[in-house]
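Replying to the earlier thread about multi-chain prediction with a worked example.

Input:
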Amino acid sequence: MKKTGVFTSSVNRRTFVQGAAALGGAAALGVRPGFAQEPAKPSEIIVRAWGGSWVDSLKAGVSDPFTAKTGIAVRHDLTEDNEIQPKVWAAVAQGRVPPIHINWDTTTNATKSALRGVTEDLSDLPNLKNTTDLAKPVGLDGYPIVNTYGYVYVLAYRPEAFPNGAPKSWKDLLDPKFKGRLAFYNDGIGFHFPAQVAGGGKLEDIPANMQPAWDFITQIKAQQPLLGEDPDFTTWFQRGEIDAACTISTNAREARKNGVDIAWTVPEEGCKFDTDGLWIPKGLPENELYWAKEYINFALTPEAQQVWLDGLGLPGVVPGVNPPADLVNDPSYPTKPEDFEHLIRISSKVQVENESDWFAKFKSIMQG
Amino acid sequence: MDAVEAVAATLWPARFGKAIPYLLLLPAILLVGLLVLGLVEIADSSLRTLDTSTFLPSDYRTLANYERALTEGLFRTVATRSLLGAVIVTVLTLILAFPYAYLMVRTRSAGLRKLLLIALFLPFFIGQVVRAYGWLIVLGNQGMVNEALGLIGVAPLRLLYNYPAVLFGLIQYMLPFAVLMLAPAMTAIPEELESAAQSLGANWVRTMFHVVLPLVKPGLVGAGLVVLTLSLTDFAMPAILGGGSQDFIANAIYDQFFRTSDQGLGSTLALLLVAVGSILAGLVFMIFGAGTLASRGARR
Amino acid sequence: MTMPLSQRVVFWTIVICVLAILSIPTIVVLGASFTAGNIIAFPPEGLSLKWYSKIAGASDLWRAFGRSLYVATVCTIVAIPVGTLAGIALAKYRVRFETPIQVYLLLPFTIPLIGSGIGLMLLFGELRLLGQLWPVGIACAVINLPFMVWAVMASASGLEPDLELAAANCGAPPLSTFFHVTLPAVMPGVISGALLMFILALNEFLVSLLLVDARIVTLPVQIYNSIRSIITPDLAAISVIFIASAVVAVVALDRLVGLEIFLKSK
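Result:
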């Protein structure tokens, strides 16, 4: 058992303590059929990650422990997920070795890559056996991607601007006093589905009839919202430019940690819930592929998830990960089935097939 | 040197003289050729549509992307906004750059000249993100300008995240280029010419319009073309100062390449933009004469 | 020269406005970099050098800075001969198809940077050149080449053809004429063009983003990508160090060749 020496004591002890016999000790150690001996270790592997607290969390929870266990250095490529995509696609199309070993990606973007056929299959990762349903991508065969946690596009707000407490509904944002003081993502991501509900439509009508969403977004447009990306929102909150934004809870939490007066809520219409995942592009040398898989396998251990997701403040895909103290019972950290009642989850397949139309529609409303 | 001359003369007899300019141009034409090879790839991908069930480009060719690009209202809005913006920015930038270049060239103080020169290069070194933050501190709702206005009882004005803010940002970004293109043309004007005009009774406005401007025309045309083409294709300013609702064409291209993964449509928009920019540049060259950038002095 | 009072008022008003527009964000960022607080603010919240000490220890930033210097050097070395020759050709000679050639040489500006970046990524990928740094320098040379060409053209247009003719008539062979008469005459344009090429390559972001990978990331790419949730004052400190090194470079250049030569009126 010791001959691989990959994931030593702590992981094993945990798996045995949990009595997860089905897991199989040997498999957890990375010994798989076809690999009598572990393949040569590359000096480093490259993991694409988001910058700031995102990469810091990954480093603390997954990369550094992985390096400690395997001796393989982990380099982080901080190119945005959207911007690495054409680079990876071109590399695969041209038969080159891709610029990264592992892509930490939104499930939607990862699904596009999976549909395009540039992802390696990850079904044989041993640690998949003790993950929840959330880890499995919906509407795809096997595991071209492994989802590693979920997140919520919350309504973040400046408490000072809402003296009566958290906004109850997305419609509260139509109050004239918020004119010019709202912010959304450039492409409207995270807001299309709650807008569908707020506009009086049904989630079942997505994607066939999203007119209610467009009607509500048109009303929001009259409020002259700002559009931007994560760092813009933080900056705007910091500088008092905006009172509310639809953003990922992690960024709101990071802003709060840095002294920005900010809170968040899930309004009655609900918030979009989605997942991020890890995947491996095709075209890597055999041994590097092996160690890239080991990295993802390791990211699915409770130990790795606990530290990584404490940093992100997001719920993982392995049972037994505890929420950080500041997020116990927080609506952005769903743990129980009833927590999901107000969260809207649409399958990646539907999203991927229609997203460009939704973005275009959102843009044409906002650019008008 | 003589030996080198001899070798050169053997390799390149004087009767080949006519070919010299083309030979001098060849390296530049080859270097820009790299972009043309890239454009060929882009042109091919512009003829393929995206299949969102496989996220692969179609294996047949079609003009569907061009039809979308030319008919969808969003692209028309964005194209009009960029074209209009580029023209406004060009005119205003030239108006502001002219006196700056003039003073920089004509001042007797070497210290002032250097100060003016260094000030031109400063903005390049603050990355866009930090620059945007700087403007927010100055022009934001709670920024310095609005605080000052508040002291005299004016309610906060929205100075950022609108069309004028994007144009302002572009002008700031383009000013150094314009001044640097104008300055060499300005240095070539003999100062005595102006003095002569003034001593003949022309006031300074007339001197500027009738003596300096015509002589500095090559510089103005050059600076104008730089500003026009660079602002037409700019991506950063609309992104950081437009608040997301003031996109230019390059932002729409970015969205297609990076957000919706539709490289075909992105390529189409990029090619159309290249066509518009090139036609504009060609018109300028034709109106002002192709040799306008170097009009003085007989050319061989 | 002496300017009439009204002209002086008008010109100085505009120049002061331009100076303000150019330098205010820089001054704000400069001040903000010395803040003791955790956010970029002006005036800074208390004075400290903590953000400078933070970046002083960030070896990956310094390595990225070194790579940017390398890229800028490659770019300038490529652009100087290519741009100078083309500039001289266009300024001094009658060239057939001059308008099409001018429009062609302007392609780097008429192609949006994203298009250039994607095109060069595909091309360099096909040629298996990605993953190295020098092609990034070439790319920077291409996308900014018109600056080099035009800077040289502008100064070559001031060149008296008679002078060259005189040299030739005195029996000076063509190469001598080129090196002793033509080249010195366009030197101001070469210097200003080269300076601009270097600075632009040092700060280039969008095209580099598509051409580098994590092992050879350049400074602007590194900085931009390190931001996700929040912008901290270390970015301001980096800008200040960048500006300081630029000022040092400009002063050194001034001492070496004298910036006067390409600005002083005749």
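Residues 9-150+275-326 of chain A form a domain with the D-Maltodextrin-Binding Protein; domain 2 fold (CATH 3.40.190.10).

Feel free to reuse this layout for your own posts.
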